[in-house]
Amino acid sequence: MARHTRDAEFTEYVASRSGWLRKVAYLLCGDWHRADDLVQESVTRLYVHWSRAGRVENVDGYARKVLVNVFLAEQRSPWWRRTTRSGIETDGVSPSVDLDASLDLRQALAALPPRQRATVVLRYYCDLTIDQAAEALGCSPGNVKSQTSRGLDTLRSSLTARPVAAERTS
Description:
This protein is mainly alpha-helical. It folds into two domains: 1-82, Rna Polymerase Sigma Factor, Chain: A (Orthogonal Bundle), CATH 1.10.1740.10; 98-164, Arc Repressor Mutant, subunit A (Orthogonal Bundle), CATH 1.10.10.10. The protein contains ten helices and no strands. The protein is globular and about 55 Å long.
């Protein structure tokens, strides 16, 4: 009976939060297919440790930390370094008002080193405080501040360095 209840709770949680996890994973890696793989690996790890996750106050925070750890571990693996692809796949992205600006931001975000990308996503997409992001990343608040600052500086410079489409046609 306890296992059935545990599985039902886990299934309900994943069903309700999988879309959110997929969006966070996409912002971390910039590829919808890879985001699906990151979510699958994270959900598998979450299932293995569901009894621990059920005891924490913030299950979303626990799941997000698992996802970020899976992403960062993948970045360190030799397999990932050998199979890195250039370009960003944008399938499955819903149209936005300014698609060019959105694509520029995604490209700039994808160009950030993994830890900087993770801090920017956690701070500005997930809206975490510095302390919450530090806990999710397993580092000090000062490290989050410096990684975020460097990431934002890089984003600003790469986005302002791009010529505007109207200027190119003149």
